[in-house]
Design brief:
303 residues; mainly alpha
Length: 303
């Protein structure tokens, strides 16, 4: 087996820690959005989140003094990626208005399973038998969380739409990999999102209480910091190393929903979330093992 370079191992560890910090920010963002939804409409929450985030992103990348940030070789993909993120945010914030934080997070984590299914026809990355087994198991977990039937809340379907939008967002992000700089992608995510949602604000506007404005600033900080940390994590470690740690968001969302909103997770949410998380992690670890075997085999052939 090829020995692991200590420097590479240290970078991977740093990437894992950055990934955990990023998903912690996203959990805080969702919790803040849910709290704001008690005072203002979900679409207004989305609009204020993007306007606030654009301010902080602009301060981070400074496009007025660094015009190279604006240069993109894939403007259509950048716009499409940003639009899928807006769709995911709208669906997520709407679902959070009606459903517990932990339940929405658990359902949204069906996205990696959808990516595995969609990657075949879109990217030519057809899943093997082990991935199909994990995908089927994961979707069984989704059924446990959503409990389709006569008493299912309609917002569950909106949460499922969040997973679909997140899957499309992830696939487009992979298509953009290596084409544009991370800061360019970060800036266009904020810019396009703000341009899309600003015209909606006058239609849904309700004057927020003073404390909500503080939460709006917090959403901008958490969104910008979360995406920035995510970019930094991916620069230090492979996606296959980082992805399992994104599931720590399931734990954080469940605990935060319990502490802040008093949403005690029921057994279906806990069981289904566990099945979804374990199936996703299993799929990722199996892929990583197969790639390592292929790399070791290639190294032996080259000797």
């Amino acid at each position: 087996m090829t020995p692991i370079d200590p420097a590479r191992r240290d970078r991977s560890l740093a990437g894992v820690l950055l990934m955990i910090a990023a998903v912690t920010c996203f959990t805080g963002l969702d919790a803040t959005a849910k709290w704001c939804g008690q005072f203002i409409p979900p679409l207004e929450t989305v609009g204020l989140r993007y306007v606030s985030a654009l301010v902080f992103i602009s301060g981070l990348v400074r496009p007025w003094s660094n015009l190279s940030v604006l240069r993109t070789v894939s403007p259509r993909l950048q716009v499409l990626r940003a639009m899928t993120l807006v769709a995911a945010t709208v669906c997520s914030f709407t679902a959070l208005h009606y459903l517990p934080l932990g339940q929405v997070t658990a359902i949204s984590f069906a996205a990696p399973l959808m990516v595995a299914v969609m990657a075949g026809p879109l990217l030519g990355e057809w899943p093997g038998r082990h991935r199909y087994a994990a995908i089927i198991t994961g979707f069984c977990g989704v059924l446990v969380v959503t409990r389709p039937g006569g008493d299912m809340h309609w917002a569950v379907l909106v949460a499922l739409a969040t997973a679909v939008a997140n899957a499309a967002y992830a696939l487009i992000t992979r298509m953009l990999a290596g084409r544009d700089r991370p800061r360019t992608t970060l800036f266009y995510s904020g810019l396009v999102g703000a341009l899309v949602v600003i015209p909606v604000l006058p239609v849904v506007w309700a004057m927020p209480p003073g404390r909500v404005w503080a939460a709006v600033v917090g959403m901008g900080v958490l969104a910008t910091l979360g995406h920035y940390l995510l970019i930094q994590a991916n620069e230090r470690a492979a996606a296959s190393v980082l992805a399992p740690f994104s599931y720590t968001q399931l734990v954080g969302a469940t605990l935060l929903g319990w502490v802040v909103f008093g949403d005690v997770p029921d057994r279906f949410t806990l069981l289904g979330g566990l099945v979804i998380g374990l199936s996703g992690i299993t799929m990722l670890l199996q892929d990583r093992r197969l790639r390592r075997r292929a790399a070791d085999a290639g190294a032996r052939r080259s000797r």
